[in-house]
Amino acid sequence: MKKLLDMLTEEMQKAFEAAGYDGALGRVTVSNRPDLCEYQCNGAMAGAKQYKKAPIMIANEVAEKLADSKVFKEAAAVAPGFLNLKVTKEFLLDYVKGMKADAKFGLDMPAQPKKIIIDYGGPNVAKALHVGHLRSAIIGESVKRIARYVGHEVISDIHLGDWGQPMGLIIHELELRYPDLPYFDESYTGEYPTEPPFTIAELEEIYPTASGKSKEDAEYKEKAMEATFKLQSGVRGHRALWNHIISVSVADLKRNYANLNVEFDLWKGESDAHDAIPGMVQYMKDEGYAYVSDGALVVDVKEETDTKEIPPCMILKSDGASLYNTTDLATIQLRMEEYQPDKLIYLTDKRQDLYFEQIFRCAKKTKLVKPETELLHIGFGTMNGKDGKPYKTRQGGVPRLENLIAEINEEMLRKIKENGETKGYHVDEEEAAKTAKIVGLAAIKYGDLSNQPAKDYVFDIDRFTSFEGDTGPYILYTIVRIKSILAKYKEQGGDLEAAQLQAVQNESEKALVMELTKFNSVMEAAYEESAPNKICAYIYDLANEFNRFYHETPILVEADEAKKAGWVALLELTRDILESCIDVLGFGAPERM
Ligand code: ARG
Fold first, then answer.
1. For residues 79 and 60, what is the distance between their CA atoms, to the nearest angstrom?
2. CB 567 within 8 A of CB 553
3. How far is the CA of 371 from the centre of ligand 1 (A)?
4. Are 373 and 341 in contact (CB under 8 A)?
5. Which of 249, 269, 443, 477 could tie 464 with a disulfide, CB 3.0–4.6 Å?
6. Does 398 score more than 80 pLDDT?
7. Which residues share a beta bridge with 28?
8. Cα–Cα–Cα angle for 57, 63, 67, nearest 5°?
9. Is the bond preceding residue 278 a cis peptide, omega within 30 degrees?
């Protein structure tokens, strides 16, 4: 379906042309004075110069041409030359009927769907997930779902940090603790045990311990590097032990991400790029892209138009070791070979902005990707505490993700019980706990996604869990309210399936309908600009318009059955749009709350 504003613009363009002016002047926008009109066109102001005429004269002539428009009920030329517009009920009704009949509410699918790989999450194995990983997971999941919803093919890859120095540290520490394990016996030729010799809890304790030791003890560090080297060169016992580290860690990660409603198609990691590195390095040398500078192998990526210094992209360190860069470049090469994507999207903290600029330039220059392959890095800001500094636990440490979620759920449960008590109904303990989980997730995700990704934001449990204001729980509360009205309608003997939209009756209903019609353009903009925050802003406005309509309209006591059914149909559309929106944001609504 065409976007509503485009249809209004077309009607306006015809009027400009009929009055003898350039049609391009007829762009219609949503009114910035909703007290005066619904939409507006400022084309007469822009045309004044071109036609050497007072804008109000142009506006008057155009308005005249709209006198019997089927689209505009009112087109008023007002000083100094604006066109204030109101649309007809019939036009709006037609439009929402079209939306209701369409599975995607009037959103057109792309003529040429893209294949997109999105790289987010990026946890490091054997390390507990902490709040730093939260934003990548939340925003990445939503960007993925939006891209899918608008019709692209999207493959998500978690890109585990599962290779390199941290692995050597863990293996070395394990060797010190359990020297008798067969993994360390180089003469051992039998099968290795299938059960891992450690638990996730031990693994999470080992890494910081080993990392701490290596900073103080040069010999320890040396040994850990040796273990890394053995792992990477394929020593059997080291590989077997590493496989245990991965499987224990991945099982734990899967559980954590499932709690966050985050899903990955691919569970690949840095290790998967390992074998591709030597070939890629050779290629970069052979083609003359890479050269030795101060002993290191680098590719220049600066461009003439740069306004700041972009340092060369390092491919190999002077000791010949590969880096984070090398892994990412080799991963790009593999992704291009295996999936031929049109677009690659990465989510990390914005402190990696320059890093990805270098990587992307290097990938283009060395032709690892096609000239037309889109490369996008979405760098996000920091999640701060109320003191404006990066969020910490009360004890001052970086909080584990699990604890943070538990904290939100607890507060949510308290509020749900309190809400039940003040409204005087019995709250079932078990159901309340389940609901608290669903609503808690919405509180966290909406609290994050309602900000522009690049901005820092304050993690405020009190505000995020509130049932009022621009919050996840408020949106869910609105959805639950709609569901309950629909359920009552059914109890009264109403037929939900048969309910048909009717002509718009009152002002608050019209405002709700106009808000609904923005859906396709909001969803498209959210995709184009990688901006889930646009969807949050939209559903907040939509929930507000719905609640205003609901408070002004006694729906279920309406005597005119057709009218009542019309409202019910409008409620269904509102519910479906809200639910589709929260689904692309990555959370769902409970049945009751
Ligand atoms: N594991 C990395 C980190 O913790 C994030 C990985 C992001 N993805 C990428 N392809 N570099 O910082």
1. 10
2. yes
3. 24
4. yes
5. 443
6. no
7. 41
8. 145
9. no
Tokens standing for 528?
């184009």
- Record the pTM: 0.95
**Residues in CB range of 425: below 8 A, 6 or more apart:** none
Distance CA 527, CA 533 (A): 11
Residue 399 C-alpha to ligand 1 middle, in angstroms? 19
Q: Is the Cβ atom of 348 under 6 angstroms away from ligand 1?
A: yes
| Widest pairwise Cα distance in the chain | 96
Round to the nearest angstrom and report the end-to-end CA distance of the chain: 35
pLDDT of residue 519: 98
Asked if 54 and 48 touch (Cβ cutoff 8 Å), the reply is yes
Atom of ligand 1 nearest to the CA of 123: 1
Would you say the CB of residue 26 lies under 6 angstroms from ligand 1?
A: no
User: Is residue 461 scored above 80 in pLDDT?
Assistant: yes
Mean pLDDT, rounded, of the chain: 95
User: For atom 12 of ligand 1, which residue has the closest CA?
Assistant: 122
Cβ-defined contacts of 211-215 (< 8 Å, 24+): 211/166, 211/169, 213/173, 214/169
pLDDT tens-digit readout, 261-306: 999 999 999 999 999 999 999 999 999 999 999 999 999 999 999 9
Centre of ligand 1 from the C-alpha of residue 335, in Å: 16
Mutate to test the pocket of ligand 1, among 131, 134, 159 (most ligand atoms within 8 A of CB): 159
Q: Give ranges for CATH 3.30.1360.70 in the chain.
A: 4-87
Tell me the per-residue pLDDT of 211-223, one tens digit each, with 9 for 90 and over: 999 999 999 999 9
Q: Which residue(s) pair with 155 in the sheet?
A: 117
The stretch 31-56 carries a mean pLDDT of: 94
- The third-level CATH classification (topology) of the domain covering 4-87 is Gyrase A; domain 2 (3.30.1360)
